[in-house]
């Protein structure tokens, strides 16, 4: 991605404490126009706090923010019209039907055509006639997503957007995010689920204990992440066949127990799949590491030096 693109989100040295809890200890971010930018971190890392500061929903203790060319502290409602925001915790106690609530939100942003609301609701399989208060968590999340997308904002800021969505709707959501990018608009989304960010993002920042520990192109992150594979064969493998697996450059930690082989791999599983296909495969399973493991295996030593991690990723 060309680095000369317009910067849509810039944050420098953001700090925030809640009493004795230091939630952010100097967060820097640069998000460029037309990219999908993932914001990854385990629970309590500071994602929601950062997002709320970006939108001036809470006040920062220190640092600078620029969103679409403005400081959100002073830009007021004009800036809000160019942003779609999905909060991490939706409080929707209204007795009104979703259609009415969404029309009301749309009017606050200068009006959104009813057919646009209906089309988005249709994609998410949301019933617009039910009172919002009685909706399930997942259906409330859909209302939140429709209100974030419906006015076609230049910038979408989404806090844990797939929380509560079933897998098919997660895919629908990711498709919408890609369409947004194709129109040159920008998406910033937080998540603690590595796979969804990996699937859709161009770049991601990883936050841990209130600091950005890495900002990476997703291709670089994909290669850093070791996935665990388990293959169960129809019969025990001859020793020389096991050696073929062991000889593959990106196969590590290989263990064979009876008919079951486990290993970890970086990058593409192509070689493993082709070797396995020489035999009868009863089961093949691949698990991604959770974020915590990724942090401990890859970022522990690089500590808080995000430039160092970027250098490593480029190497
Ligand atoms: N209103 C608050 N009062 C006190 N502490 C808070 C408040 N909000 C957040 N914190 C603390 O600040 C830190 C960062 O929290 P934050 O909600 O930003 O993390 P997060 O990455 O969004 O986590 P999650 O994925 O669980 O939503 C945590 O230690 C949290 O307990």
In short:
The protein is of the alpha/beta class and 315 residues long. It is 36% helix and 29% strand. The chain has 13 helices and 13 strands.
Explain the overall architecture:
The protein has helices spanning 47-54, 72-75, 77-80, 98-108, 114-123, 137-149, 167-182, 194-200, 218-224, 239-247, 270-276, 291-299, 306-314, and strands spanning 7-18, 21-32, 36-40, 62-67, 83-86, 155-159, 186-191, 203-208, 211-217, 226-233, 251-257, 260-266, 281-287. The protein has 315 residues and is an alpha/beta fold. The protein has two domains: 7-222, Rossmann fold, CATH 3.40.50.300; 226-287, 2-Layer Sandwich (Alpha-Beta Plaits), CATH 3.30.70.260. The chain has a six-stranded mixed beta sheet with strand order 5-6-7-3-8-9, sandwiched between helices. Strands 11-12-10-13 form a four-stranded antiparallel beta sheet. A three-stranded antiparallel beta sheet has the order 2-1-4, covered by helices on one side. Strand 11 and strand 12 form a beta hairpin. The longest helix is centred in the middle third of the chain and has 16 residues, at 167-182. The model is unreliable at 302-315 (pLDDT under 50). Residues 18, 21, 23, 41, 43-49, 88, 192 line the site of adenosine-5'-triphosphate. GO terms for molecular function: ATP binding; ATP hydrolysis activity. This is ABC transporter ATP-binding protein. It holds the Pfam family ABC_tran.
